């Protein structure tokens, strides 16, 4: 059948209307399409690239700010800790050096020695050595004693040896007990003088000048049982032997 010009115009107009309607329908759709191509208008649109980019800088800024703050705090705390520790260590070392320089052996030059009669036990003398200097000193071993012009020093009582060297701060005292005689002793004589020597740190001989303390009486009976204790920190300890 041959189409007339009128019928062709009608078909063209109908096709244009269908195309216009399809375009309008597409423009009005706001939903998302599923795998079948069907659009569901109840689902929100997926976030775009712009939304993600807007969140990134904010997150990045918070992270950087927090990091800078932590670094600053950590650095400050670490610095203070190191400086404080260093200062404390240096102060301790200086104090140790000063203490070491001011410690010496006790000698007659910096001590005052007195000798008294002990009421108990009988036939005992108590020697007291007081540090009169401004320097800490050590009383090593036992005092070397010599009554009158004796050829040898009084023997030490080995059982009285303390666990540590007696150290005297300025004003402090150390003690030693002296057994003068016993009923079983031999070769008794009456001594009228006493010389005290300070033992050297090495244990070999004496150090410094001797002391010459006065005896409590005009004379003291001495015999072969005569002995002296090691230096002690208390009078009670010195008189236990």
Walkthrough of the structure:
By secondary structure, the chain is α+β, with helices and mostly antiparallel strands. The protein has a domain at 105-238: Sandwich (Immunoglobulin-like), CATH 2.60.40. It is 34% helix and 25% strand. It is built from three helices and 14 strands. The strands form five sheets. Strands 4-5-9-14 form a four-stranded antiparallel beta sheet. The chain has a three-stranded mixed beta sheet with strand order 3-6-8. Strands 7-11-12 form a three-stranded antiparallel beta sheet, with no helix packed on it. A hairpin with a 6-residue loop joins strand 11 and strand 12 (206-211). The chain is elongated and about 65 Å long. The N and C termini lie far apart (153 Å). 17% of the residues are buried. Residues 21-83 have low confidence and may be disordered.
Bin the strand percentage.
25-35%
Backbone shape: elongated
What CATH calls the topology of the domain at 105-238 is: Immunoglobulin-like
Helix content: 25-40%
| Overall pLDDT metric | 75
Placed side by side, the strands forming the largest sheet appear as: 4-5-9-14
Overall CATH class of the domain at 105-238: Mainly Beta
Region (Disordered): 32-111
Signal peptide: 1-27
Domain DUF4232: 106-232
Biased composition (Low complexity): 59-84, 102-111
């Amino acid at each position: 059948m041959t189409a007339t010009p009128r019928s062709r115009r009608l078909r063209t107009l109908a096709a244009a209307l269908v195309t216009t309607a399809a375009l309008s329908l597409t423009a009005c759709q706001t939903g998302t399409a599923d795998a079948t191509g069907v659009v569901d208008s109840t689902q929100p649109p997926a976030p775009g690239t712009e939304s993600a980019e807007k969140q990134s800088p904010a997150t990045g800024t918070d992270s950087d700010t927090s990091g800078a703050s932590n670094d600053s705090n950590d650095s400050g705390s670490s610095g203070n800790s190191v400086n404080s520790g260093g200062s404390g260590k240096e102060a301790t070392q200086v104090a140790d050096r000063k203490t070491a320089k001011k410690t010496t052996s006790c000698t007659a030059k910096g001590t005052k020695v007195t000798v008294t009669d002990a009421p108990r036990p009988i036939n005992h003398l108590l020697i007291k050595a007081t540090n009169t200097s401004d320097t800490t000193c050590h009383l090593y071993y036992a005092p070397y004693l010599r009554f009158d012009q004796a050829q040898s020093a009084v023997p030490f009582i080995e059982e009285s040896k303390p666990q540590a060297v007696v150290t005297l701060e300025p004003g402090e005292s150390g003690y030693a007990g002296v057994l003068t005689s016993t009923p079983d002793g031999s070769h008794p004589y009456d001594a009228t003088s006493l010389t005290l020597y300070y033992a050297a740190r090495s244990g070999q001989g004496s150090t410094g000048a001797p002391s010459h303390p006065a005896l409590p009486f005009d004379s003291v009976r001495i015999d072969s049982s005569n002995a002296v204790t090691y230096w002690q920190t208390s009078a009670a300890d010195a008189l236990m032997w």
